Amino acid sequence: MTSPGNPVALQCPVPLEANDRVQLGHGSGGRLSAQLVARHFLPHFENPALAQLGDASIVNVTGGEIAISTDSFVVQPLEFPGGNIGSLAVHGTLNDVAMMGARAVCLTAGFIIEEGLSLDVLDRVIVEMARAAREAGVPIVAGDTKVVERGKADGLYINTTGVGVIDPTFRPSPTRAVPGDVILVSGAIGRHGMAIMAAREGMSFESAITSDSAALFPLVDNLRATGVDVHVLRDPTRGGVASALNEIAVASLVGIEIDEGALPVPGDVRAACEMLGLDPLYVANEGVLVAFVPASGAEQALSALRAHPLGEGAVRIGAVVAAHPRLVALRTALGGTRVVDLLPGDQLPRIC
Amino acid sequence: MKYLSEYRDAEIAKALIARIKARATRPWTLMEVCGGQTHTIVRQGLDEMLEGAVEMIHGPGCPVCVTPLEQIDKALAIAARPEVIFTSFGDMLRVPGSDCDLQQVRARGGNVKIVYSPLDALALAQRHPEKEVVFFAVGFETTAPANAMAVFRARELGVTNFSVLVSHVTVPPAIRAIMEAPDNRVQGFLAAGHVCAVMGYTEYEPIAAQYKVPIVVTGFEPVDILEGMAMAVNQLEAGRHEVENQYVRSVRRLGTEPARALVAKVFELADRPWRGLGEIKMSGLALRAEFAAYDAETKFGVSDIKVTEPAACRAGEVLTGRLKPPQCEAFGTLCTPERPLGAPMVSTEGACSAYYNIAKYRTADADAVVSAPARPS
Prior knowledge:
heterodimer, A: alpha+beta, CATH 3.30.1330.10, Phosphoribosyl-aminoimidazole Synthetase, Chain A, domain 2, 30% helix, B: Rossmann fold, six-stranded mixed β-sheet, five-stranded parallel β-sheet, 16 helices
């Protein structure tokens, strides 16, 4: 084949780089594929490991244990107030690694792109993704792109895998909650899920609810620096705080009691939830963590969270109890009690 | 939020609870008619706080709970058709029909969408002229005006690929049916504020007089409900039986005239079966003959689907307060929130599902007495 830099050389009538949309040819492994990678991905994801474009990237990891997490992102719409599928794919996986107390060292990203996706949209996703990774200080060292026929995917799916290094002295785990632990959340809940819902349904409020999507490692690092023995860390994503607490109650065989009045639900999230008949406790978060700490370290942990902008709104929401193991109970503002159960499936908007 | 935070004020609520307890010389049995009120009562644990003074029976006012199996099966049959986009309010998706629910129809390839308003379904029909868009018009007098509006607008706009599967019911005949039941325990009603915001409350005046039962038109926030209970208990203690309006900030005696007029223009009274209660004469709404073109039942030929309710499900007795959910043989065994047999186990505010959660909590508590100290830290 001829080099594209030589205008007089003979050329087969290969398709020109297709205008403004992803075509099946972008996934062919041929020139369009190379262009897609070279023009759209590499400039943003640039780092030495990726630049070698080998079949695999080689990364230095210091001795000891590593934490690995993988997650696939299929969110619709692809772009939403506060982020897009790209930044979410970085934050989501980094946060899963961070919840093990591990410091992330690299990420990989796989893209499944539907034929016809606008290249502008793809570029914006990549730019945000690169920004999120850069801000977290974690390089994207390996990647893959596939293009599937129109109708075989919903615009764009991204899978990311994160690798982190474990600190042997800091080992939070969902099984370590014990009666007496104090439960903290790092900030306002329900924002991501309601931002997506509002964007999806075309609902407009006085001001847009923005997703809280953010990398939580700085908060984890602050907690670690206190020396407090953090028993459990969890980012309450799908299923929200309610589901995360239920999983912990089961994994640790303890009861959990939370105080409705203490839950940090922002006014706009509350209003949107009420309009749609949803419960903010079950709405997804992407930039909030839940921490279980011994009562003796609670104040210290709370100050450590509040010392970072992401944790300014950190509050204590409840405690672990020996009573009713495996169940999460909520003390209502009026002093009543109700069980906060796992939902059988998706949260469905209520009629009345 | 103005007109909202005041009605959630814990101090006011606690004062009302104390007042009800002080006033009640014996335990009174009240029924809240509406599922929205049940939701507040269960979520706030109001019934637990009033133990000994007021027993609340969760009434048949949850549209999810009373839509008959037959209508669900019709919905499933229509939703499975390839040319149909079937639209519904969210919580109807999990209501079990004879052999599946709408979510399963969707998994098998049916096009089922959640909408928040019937007018969104109409807009969907305009965007997809190649499809038949059907809206599942369930609910009480509250949802009726918007559903009437969708049908009315569809005719005005000449949209022919839109139709509604109607399963509308009305509150007053249900109250009568409960009062007529030979073993009725209900001594007073909290009527649904939003239903009365549309319809007014003149229909309830003869019922209160005939059955000598207090009826208090009540709102949905904790303070509303407690105030409604206090008013009902006051009447019972004084031997009065009137219609009183707690929800004065939204409800006028004659309701909202334009909404009532629109409902009357599109719908007419008809006999309707209620899940668990059976057929109640003139208790529902059906499309008037001039809007027959928008009736999904005839459009898709499903009118002849006839189903009998599962015998093991005693939802009817639960909805009328004659049976407490744990007394049902299927409760917690054959019938759980994951695999509901009847509708009151489906909706989170359904009476059976509410009891299921409380029962789990109390059982776990009893377990804990034995198991808790054993756990090492």
